[in-house]
Amino acid sequence: MSEATILDLSLPDLLLAYGLLLLVVGLARLRDAGQERDLVWASLRMVAQLLLVGYLLHWIFAWNRPLPVLVLLVLMFGFAVQVIGRRVSRKMPGFYRVLTIALMLGCGLVTFLFCVVIVGPTPWYDPRYLIPLTGMIIGNSMNGATLAAERLSAEMHERRQEIETALCLGASSAQAGREALRGAFRAALIPATNSMAAMGIVFLPGMMTGQILSGTEPMIAVRYQIGIMFAITGAVGLTSFLIVSQGIRRYFTSAHQLLDVD
């Protein structure tokens, strides 16, 4: 299949598709769910954001220089930190510092390994590879990072008496907080594990579907999908591990005393 056979979507086509969302708005209004305004606002925001990104990517692809690519990646990291910060209601001490370091190291190392070393585009900053692959890695890591941070705070709150008792009996902070750390890390890995288990049977992932629609040979799309899923799982695991490992230390003093952060 050549690129010339790709079926374009016209404005009337998109308006017809938007009718499906309006159907959901109508159903929400029928059942008095109270989500009508949020649905409409979210859809309009999505359209505006995607159009903006589309024009921005068109300009970056045409320019094909490393500086705008790197600036966009930094903005993506910053936006991810902001979004996760809004999602987590109960924040650990030093939340933004822990989160920023974990995202930069976890997602940054995995992105470099997968995009530059494994895929190996020429030049290394080729925006057609680096930007979408980095976006997928960061976007999926956001869910794991949110779960890790939220769950760690909840575990430390629910297990406070248990942890204080362990400290009184002579346990170190690492020993006393071990179960909280384990529960938070386990929760962070669940979405990535479920996605890999269901992929190809329950649903076809977006990257593979997009490549097939654009005319890529299906087996090439499958290999890319397998590779990106390993990269995403690696980024989720590494980022979440850094969050819970660094985050739990923020709850204790250097003398292994539990801080009162509630």
Note down, in words, how this protein is organized:
The chain is mainly α and 262 residues long. It has 10 helices and no strands. α3 (66-87) crosses α4. The longest helix is centred in the middle third of the chain and has 32 residues, at 127-158.
Summarize the structure.
The protein has 262 residues and is an all-alpha fold.
For the structure shown, list the relevant keywords:
globular; 0% strand; 10 helices; mainly alpha; 262 residues
Structural class: mainly alpha
Mean residue pLDDT: 91
Oligomer: single chain
**N-to-C span:** 59 Å
The coarse silhouette is globular
Number of H/I helices: 10
Computed CA radius of gyration, to the nearest angstrom: 22 Å
Strand content: under 5%
Write the layout of secondary structure elements.
Blueprint: H1 11-30, H2 36-63, H3 66-87, H4 95-119, H5 127-158, H6 160-168, H7 173-176, H8 178-198, H9 206-213, H10 218-249
Helix pairs in contact: 1-2, 3-4, 3-5, 4-5, 4-10, 5-8, 5-10, 8-10, 9-10
